[in-house]
Design a protein that fits this description.
Two copies of one chain form a homodimer. With 615 residues, chain A is an alpha+beta fold. Chain A contains 20 helices and 18 strands. The first copy, chain A, folds into three domains: 297 residues, Beta-lactamase (3-Layer(aba) Sandwich), CATH 3.40.710.10; 141 residues, Transcription Regulator spoIIAA; 143 residues, Sandwich (Jelly Rolls). In chain A, β9, α13 and β10 form a beta-alpha-beta unit.
């Protein structure tokens, strides 16, 4: 993008324009005071102010002092909670630290009277207990491990502010008291001294407003950093982290925060706020002056505005997932590329409605797939086959996967075959879930062909597909010719016999002949590309013809033609085709009429298909 | 569906199968005890057990005792909170009742020491204060109003269990104490006696498990009952109700509930639980035995299983909204239906890339529309026109609407025109937001034509569109004929002059003529249907021909042809067309060749379009 003109800079975006206005609106707010319980924190400039949004796909919008370093403080509590869960699992962690909001202030000791367990991991007592659960591993100390994991969240190597750490350690008498109280109740299973130093170091990790937004986006992205693609936390524990942030993240303002802002969040006395809109984005705010509850005063106001102005509240409108039913049609409206002799074609037209195609889209979860089950069961008495087309499906969660398998089972009990197509990206999960390979089709075309073949087998009998060579007069293109004309043409045309697998035509060849297929079958296939196998676009059987378009417009061949069943073709070359004008004008007229009819027929079919796709 | 066979009953659905298993799994659980603080409640059968899910579109899955009546009790608190918000607005309500979880049990008095305001509306003190805020209106008493509103949630007329009401009233000493305490702090502004009776009556409203699920679905559906379509609560306050349910809905188990189940919910000592997955569904559970915190013991277990098995946790995977970018292409890949003379067509092929079409889909909210802004700004230097196609867009929230308007403004400053098409359902909101009528197009076709015309105007000059009559030899179909043949045909063909607005062809007419347009222009339009105006599918100008397909295959006309600019057509009737075989075979061959070429050209174009739509 180095050639892009200046106006392309992101500052041009209405979103950055909005953020600049928001910064200006709240920059004058003088409420709150910089934390001074340790001398180092009191040095922060109260005018520092930054706002940053990081999207789930890693795009960053930032205004103000978004690159200025400050200490993470209590925001670290949310992230270390995830590490403890990974190290010990939910049951162990829950037994030692609750998840209930206490209604008390951030530095309250708040231990449950019976067990001594801290109410939740977002108060100091809970966070110290959690810190004690983080196991040193792989040659890393506890502190090194915490620093490495938080760095993964931020997508860069973070460091500890040693001055703040020392200051916290020297003045952390209350936290030491909490540590020993936790030891007393056996919440900590050994002496707290080391753990407390780890805890003080964890709080003194330096971050920027931008880091916080990216950390938030990492949580929004199921634990994977959207910029580095590194996994910062096991996705199985992301909902635990977000849940405690939702109920306990903003000290004794948490209830009102969820009510007004509606985002899982965590604040720190360093002046930072990290907020997450799950599945969508992360927000980082930096402004040191704190309100009575210990939250960044400007940060609260900015987040209230952001939530209202951008409709980010968890329970705002627009959170309904898109229905996964995209389109449905049946086998009388669409058909596979396999052209059938007209007697079979008629049978398919009459029975094609027994094939039901359901096109799905978006994210398949319980709520979006549930209506598909309803539709399929409603259609069941009228169908023999149900094809789920997954081309527009982006993700399938475990629940929807199970529902697909169960729907197949239920339909099978009702005598229906259910298959999926266009679901290559899900092949692995389908295999693990036990969906037979034979019920997975590369695309709708091959799935339709399978169903059509099955239908024809039932109606016509086992020999439905027997290919028999045809005489010239059975070729559609020659059907108006009389015996004399046929005999004459027979003498003039070339013959080409080709075994299975042979390429009759290569894409790019000059379009210089018309082929009448009198035995076997061939497939028209798009040229392969680096990322796609050659897609079938047509199948011809004996009695049909191909190659006429090149003869008419002189353009090179656009596709390959490959022999499926050993084929015999009669060939009308361009010189022969053109000489007919003067030599046999009557015959030429008959040929052109059939040709025009065929083109006209195919054009109507293609136009109908365009209309079907346009919906 | 009365003819549907028995196996179509919903019990066949894998979802009901699952719910039956879930019911069986937990039916044996003997934990907890039926509430007995008032004698009437103690009469409940501890074995009663029902599970019901109601989807946002009103489909009901139910197993067990889902039609058995019981009293709503504390679940009413969530719903009356919405009524108070409607009556007085957020600021007033928040000043009297907080939204902070107290960490205390359900019957704790929990008033804030400074103000006497109850911590939140889900504890008794808060609910009584909220009840006092509900204003009698329209001749309804407070109790009648509450009953009417809860009936709207349930979609049926609810009634009060008078025995339970009397029992509650006779034994409600603690609540009376709370009422007077609230009066003491001026949280209630008059004597509590009446309010308390309303409160006791509200708790004694009879509901079923099914009602609870539908009430939940109503909240999931932004306050509109999905069965009756009645508005039960102003959508502006739905997020407030869901927020307090999230943080305070399950007494002092609320934190752990959100952590484990992850759904806004409210329980009642009658044994009911109402849970909501916003935008998706409502859940109702009924099982009278209560655990230590006063929540239905089986209900908690069932909801934990439901949340895990169906991945319903608010922060589970699959909550990311689908990207709204569906497809993007430019005016060199697609073009309007307006056929252009070849000199203009060439110019459009060379410059069509300056028209950028962006197809959107799903729900437009901040996160889904934000990438569209990025794309549009990135494309800006290479384009003159941006068309946002809204055909697959389901909803546009206020934020996205504003962003659309701002993007148009930003692009306009960069010298680009931005327009929307296929957004008929949004016409009203666009108008209110100030989007000019002239920038809204009914469909992509007309939007493309507008851009093409603008491009041609810039390249060719103001006279680009001047229509000039053509001679017969300038008609593409006759371009191979020599002067003698043209003169002969001129004498044989009919002529038809038609003023603007005339129907040259009606859909259903026999296809018995081919038209050569020598002056003016015509539009091919699909027949109107009851719910759709006739859609334009083609435009022809002088020099072009139409109607050939009917002549070739004998099928009736599939569309209307309407004159746009006063037209002169030369007409080749079927008898003339057929007589050429013997009278002028050479001429016929030349005609058929051009005809085949044209059909072949259109077929290639149509096939390409099918390929573009298949992606």
């Amino acid at each position: 993008m180095s050639l892009a003109p200046a106006y392309l800079s992101p500052s041009n975006s209405p979103i950055e324009q909005y953020l600049r206005q928001l910064l200006a609106k709240h920059a004058g707010l003088e409420e709150g005071a910089v934390a001074d319980y340790i001398p180092e924190l009191a040095k922060a400039d109260p005018r520092s102010f930054g706002i940053c949004i990081a999207t789930r796909d890693g795009h960053i919008y930032e205004v103000g002092d978004t690159r200025q370093a400050f200490t993470i403080q209590s925001i670290s509590k949310a992230l270390t909670y995830g590490i403890a869960l990974e190290d010990h699992g939910e049951d162990f962690v829950l037994a030692k630290v609750g998840v209930e909001p206490s209604g008390d202030a951030f530095n309250a000791i708040s231990l449950k009277p019976e067990s001594g367990a801290p109410f939740n991991p977002m108060i100091n007592a809970g966070a110290i207990a959690i810190c004690g659960q983080i196991s040193p591993a792989d040659g890393q100390t506890r502190s090194e491990k915490i620093l490495a994991r938080l760095s993964a969240y931020a997508g860069r190597t973070l460091t500890v502010d040693e001055a703040v750490y020392l200051s916290e350690s020297q003045t952390g008498h209350r936290n030491r008291a909490i540590g020993w109280m936790l030891r007393n109740f056996d919440i900590l299973d050994h002496e707290p001294t080391d753990i407390l130093e780890s805890y003080f170091r964890q709080c003194a990790i330096q971050v920027t407003c931008r880091d916080l937004a990216i950390m938030g986006a990492t949580l929004a992205n199921q634990g994977r950093n959207p910029l580095t693609r590194e996994r910062a936390v096991d996705p199985a524990y992301v909902h635990n982290v977000l849940s405690v942030m939702s109920t306990c993240g903003m000290y004794d303002y948490s209830g009102e925060w969820l009510y007004r802002v509606g985002l899982p969040a965590k604040s720190g006395v360093g002046g930072g706020i990290l907020a997450v809109l799950p599945g969508q984005l992360g927000i980082g705010i930096y402004s040191p002056p704190l309100d009575r509850q210990g939250n960044s005063a400007r940060g609260i106001k900015v987040c209230e505005d952001l939530s209202r102005d951008l409709a980010l509240h968890l329970f705002a409108n627009g959170t309904a997932p898109q229905p996964s039913l995209r389109l449905t049609y049946d086998g009388s409206q669409v058909s596979s590329c396999r052209r059938r002799p007209s007697r079979l074609q008629q049978k398919l037209r009459a029975t094609g409605h027994r094939i039901r195609v359901i096109e799905l889209q978006g994210e398949l979860i319980f709520s979006t797939f549930e209506p598909v089950i309803r539709l399929a069961l409603k259609q069941a008495p009228y169908c023999d086959f149900v094809i789920l087309n997954l081309r527009y499906v982006m993700t399938i969660d475990e629940v929807a996967l199970k529902m697909i398998i169960e729907l197949k089972q239920t339909l099978s009990e009702l005598g229906l075959q259910m298959m999926v197509c266009d679901g290559e990206q899900f092949a692995k999960v389908f295999q693990e879930a036990g969906l037979e390979q034979s019920m997975q089709f590369a695309n709708e075309d091959t799935a339709l062909e399978h169903c059509e073949n099955e239908l024809l087998k039932r109606i016509v009998g086992p020999d439905w597909n027997k290919l028999t060579p045809v005489s010239l007069k059975d070729c559609f293109l020659l059907s108006e010719l009389d015996a004399e004309e046929l005999a004459w043409l027979d003498g003039e045309m070339g013959t080409r016999e080709s075994p299975q697998g042979d390429y009759l035509i290569h894409a790019g060849d000059p379009g210089d002949s018309l082929y009448l297929l009198v035995a076997g079958s061939v497939e028209v296939r798009l040229p392969e590309t680096s990322n796609q196998a050659g897609k079938r676009i047509d199948v011809f059987e004996a009695g049909m013809s191909f190659g006429e378009m090149g003869l008419l417009d002189g353009l090179p061949r656009s596709a390959n033609v490959v022999v499926l069943d050993d084929a015999v073709c009669r060939v009308i070359s361009r010189p022969l085709f053109e000489s007919l004008d003067s030599v046999r004008p009557g015959l030429k007229i008959k040929l052109l009429k059939r040709l025009s009819y065929l083109l006209s027929y195919n054009l109507r079919k293609s136009n109908d298909e365009v209309a079907a796709y346009r919906g």
